[in-house]
Amino acid sequence: MEVQERRTYKAVIGLEFHVHLATTTKMFCGCRVTYGDPPNTHTCPVCLGHPGALPVTNEKAVELGVMAGLALNCDVADRAIFARKNYFYPDLPKGYQISQFDEPICTGGHIDVPTPEGRIRVGITRLHLEEDAAKNVHVGTSGRMHGSVGSLVDFNRGGTPLMEIVTEPDIPSPEAARATANQLKDILRAVGVSEADMEKGQLRCDANVSIRNPDGTFGTKTELKNMNSFRFVERGLTRELERQREILENGGRIEQTTLHYDPETDEVHELRSKEYAHDYRYFPEPDLLPLELSSSYVREIEERLPELPDQMLARFIEQYGLSAYDASVLTSDRKLASFYEAVAAEVDPKQASNWISGDLRALLNEAGTDISDSRVTSEHMKELIELVAAGKVSRSAARTALDTVFETGDPPSAIVEREGLASVGSDELSDVVDETISANPDEAGRVRGGDKKVLGFLVGQVMKATRGNADGGRVRELLMEKLGS
Ligand code: ADP
Ligand code: ZN
Ligand code: MG
Questions:
Q1: Taking the CA atoms of the chain, what radius of gyration do you get in angstroms?
Q2: Where residue 2 falls among pLDDT bands split at 50, 70, 90?
Q3: Burial of 142 (0-12, 13-18, 19+ CB in 10 A)
């Protein structure tokens, strides 16, 4: 009998990110960085590549690049060099892109990423600065080059400061790739180096993927280019791994290629190899001086580095006694996190977390708004939590009041008053319980006889009579007292 050897298919993934830096002007000229302005309204001889125009490095871009590198635990080089990456394409008027090649500003970092497989450490190979190309606009029905009647070039984007971040091939699955991309985005946003808005094209991702050889060595990789949504990164990689696996199972070999993932058909297509010929003939940019990054300059930036998502998460768990889950929900959005901190400074942090990560976030999600656009202020939230803690409003009545705060922006106390949401006082509650007992003699008798199941029914009757403005636990206690059970 032949013993079939089953081979395992272990994925190996490395990501490359292109990130627009949050500067007001371009990388090597004074033109403004804008989104959605009329085409070709922010250009000059430098970013249009006119002969003789000289580039000047944007200091702010260098600072943001260093800041990003530090946040990604990289080493910052004391000397970095810009290089010309030569290729011809209509979106590149100079015939070369100013980039960095063998002396980038940052190398050797890592980020820790929570994934479905647990926490993984993903190495950051390098981070370098460059300029973005202009934008080709293909005229015709599809919006793509294929089938278009002509192409136009919008140079507004040309010369926008760009940071490229390359990871080590440390990522074991498409899900982990998505988590890595998200973690990176969170860090960049937290540090403020980029808005990293994918819809504006401020963050783009290429994914390199292969399947390990049976002996554990790396297999041949393919590259999925230019994905502008992390969901598509995950789906594209899943699809590509299926394709590679099928080839390997049929005894074939993987060819190193560059691919495009089409989310609509869930298929990968090979890009014409000439479009991505890797013969860029890099050489040092003669029009720019090397960047000298002194240790005092780097240290000064390091001191201004804000709290990173991981640090904030750990602090929330420690300082407020929250579960890892609640802390991660609250810290996943900087604005929500500072809203929470304003409330937690005044009331029980655990209650604040329940209200904000639960009830309030549900309302925000439903309305599709974020906390900074919401009418609910931290003052409102604090007031509401205090009303509940003082027994003036039941939890469920407070929940109703929150809906109205969310809609109107009125203070909770005013809403409670106006809508009669205040808890009934203890004398009044005692009366209502007595009335409920006399109105339901059969059920009361059964509770007296030890049938606890009917107690819930009586609690419900009391709640109904108070229009929900009583504390369920207190009602239950009162009923048991009065019925001697
Ligand atoms: P290239 O020469 O094609 O640019 P690099 O070695 O510079 O390749 O790596 C580019 C990206 O591909 C990096 O993110 C790296 O982690 C990833 N990578 C390298 N080898 C593999 C592999 N065998 N499988 C998956 N990803 C890989
Ligand atoms: Zn310009
Ligand atoms: Mg490379």
A1: 30
A2: low
A3: exposed
The bound ligand whose nearest atom lies closest to the alpha carbon of 33 is 2
pLDDT at 187 > cutoff 60: yes
- Our mutation pick for probing the ligand 1 site, out of 10, 221, 224, 233, counting the most ligand atoms within 8 A of Cβ, is 221
What is the rounded distance in angstroms from the CA atom of residue 6 to the CA atom of residue 86? 46
**244 Ramachandran zone, left/alpha/beta (phi>0; psi -120 to 50):** alpha
* Confidence bin at 199 (pLDDT 50/70/90): confident
CB of 14 closer than 6 A to ligand 1? yes
Range from 6-10, 22-26, 265-269 carrying the lowest mean pLDDT: 6-10
Mean pLDDT of 265-294: 86
- Cα dihedral 445→449→451→452 (10° resolution): 90
40 CA to middle of ligand 2, Å?
10
Tens of pLDDT, residues 212-254: 999 999 999 999 998 889 999 999 999 999 999 999 999 999 9
Task: Provide the terminal-to-terminal Cα distance of the chain, rounded to the nearest Å.
Answer: 73
Determine whether the shortest distance from the Cβ of 104 to ligand 1 is under 6 A.
no
Instruction: Report the alpha-carbon distance of residue 126 to residue 112 in Å, rounded.
Output: 16
For residue 218, the ligand 1 atom closest to its alpha carbon is: 23
Q: What is the pLDDT of residue 4?
A: 55
**Looking at residues 327-352, what average pLDDT do you find?**
94
pLDDT of the residue at 333: 84
Rounded-to-integer distance, Cα 425 and Cα 296, Å: 65
**Nearest atom within ligand 1 for CA of residue 208:** 26
The class (CATH top level) of 426-483 is mainly alpha
- Please give the Cα distance from 71 to 355 (Å, whole number): 31
Is the C-beta atom of 309 inside 6 A of ligand 1?
A: no
* Ligand 1 pocket residue status of 195, Cβ below 6 Å: no
Please report the pLDDT score of residue 275 as a whole number.
Answer: 54
By DSSP bridging, strand 258-262 and strand 222-227 are: parallel
Give the residue-averaged pLDDT of 260-286: 84
Torsion of CA 111, 114, 120, 123, to 10 degrees: -20
Locate the domains of the chain by residue range: 16-204+274-301, 309-418, 426-483
Residue 12 Cβ contacting ligand 1 at under 6 Å: yes
Give the pLDDT score at 143: 66
